[in-house]
Description:
alpha/beta; Spore Coat Polysaccharide Biosynthesis Protein SpsA, Chain A; seven-stranded mixed beta sheet; 30% strand; elongated; binds uridine-diphosphate-N-acetylglucosamine; binds calcium ion
Amino acid sequence: MAKISAIVLAAGMGTRMKSGLIKVMHPLAGPPMIAWPVAAAFEAGVDDCVLVVGHQEEKVRAYFAERGDISFAVQSEQLGTGHAVRCAMPELAADSTTVLILCGDTPLITARTLRDMLQAHAASGAAVTVMTAVLADPYGYGRIVKVQDGSVAGIVEEKDASAEVRGIREVNAGVYCINREFLEGAVAHLDNDNAQGEYYLTDVVCRATFHGLRCASYPVADAEEITGVNDRVQLAEAGRVLRSRINRELMLSGVTMVDPQAVYVDRGVRIGRDTVLHPGATVTGDSVIGERCDIGQGTLISSCILSDDVVVKAGTVLEQSTIRDAAVLGPMAHLRPGCELAAGVKIGNFVEAKKIVMGEGSKASHLTYLGDATIGKHVNIGCGTITCNYDGVKKHRTVIEDDVFVGSDVQFVAPVTVGRNSLIAAGTTVTMDVPPDSLAIARAPQVNKEGWKLRKANG
Ligand code: UD1
Ligand code: CA
């Protein structure tokens, strides 16, 4: 099969974003903007991809560092789209025969559209196929000038267009399929004799026509796919579209969303059927959520694994943790990174945990801090329990074995181990290891001074 390479243009700064960060690295539903068109190109069947980078190129390189099928071409001065493609040519795979060109700032383009366009390009035998759209307001886009047989004669930029050409509503989407051999020659011959003094990629089309080669148009079915992101308003709009696509897929696969417009799920998150997401639920990173879970209002789940039947109540934040079947978390609970909770664990109101392992059926129902702890099965952690894990220099572990009952308001001064089946009396500060099957109690004996109140009142 013929080999296809992609070129994605991403050298520009994107000044209208008014940002310290280049436009294409702004996140959209998880990954940076540029990841979307790159993923669409690969999903459509391209074999490799050259990214044209310039401003903050190190950020783009770092993001794709592990990809062997992506290479980089540096365009240090942005002299135009044609110049950008010229910079990419030496990086193209030697054996690719077709080049798919797209822009890093059009994240809504879909793999299905690109695949369809590549097929149409191969079938027509045209040297160039340009994606077009008919817009109610074509302002700012290059206009498509066609000849009688429907082929494209040229593309004229807004700033170079006559009043008559400006009246054309069919615009250049900025996506092209081009015969590689033809492209090599065409970009080498571009000039910058135009209103903007730039090397226009669109002049490649005129060159094809001039040499008697056919230039076809590929009208995109849904013009939304070609909308570019130039400012933060368009960024938000693109995010909305991408999230609604993600949510739609999830709903069609059996996930319930009470109000899909208020559910924020990153690309790549997996969620099982019959799980319900309530408004404000945000699931990010590479999180995986099982079946029949209930994800409450205003929750944040970041890079976590949840098995089946887990309940996450309102206002809970879960980070980089693993939670097994039927655990119940929240409301207002916080798992910081590194927690591993077994089946049936309960973490209740205002409980914060960090780097803990908690065995089956164990509970910390209220107002507790558990850090750097290993807690066995069927342990009850009373209200107000604190693991004192930090001595100002080092972190230390608390170990609580199976079937221990911890009363309310207990502090564990780590490192400390409580043997299985022991009871820690309420109000105890545990500073020594507790053997199994024991009672540990450490609190000042209570003194009642009878009549004290009356004596005080009588002076
Ligand atoms: C371009 C097209 C226009 C089309 C529009 C669609 C040209 C001359 N015009 O115009 O016909 O309707 O896209 O959105 O091609 N870039 C570089 N290096 C450069 C210049 C641009 O990498 O030297 C990148 C930008 O970062 C951006 C993309 O190419 O991602 C498009 O560039 P932009 O300047 O936005 O082109 P338009 O003027 O919008
Ligand atoms: Ca643009």
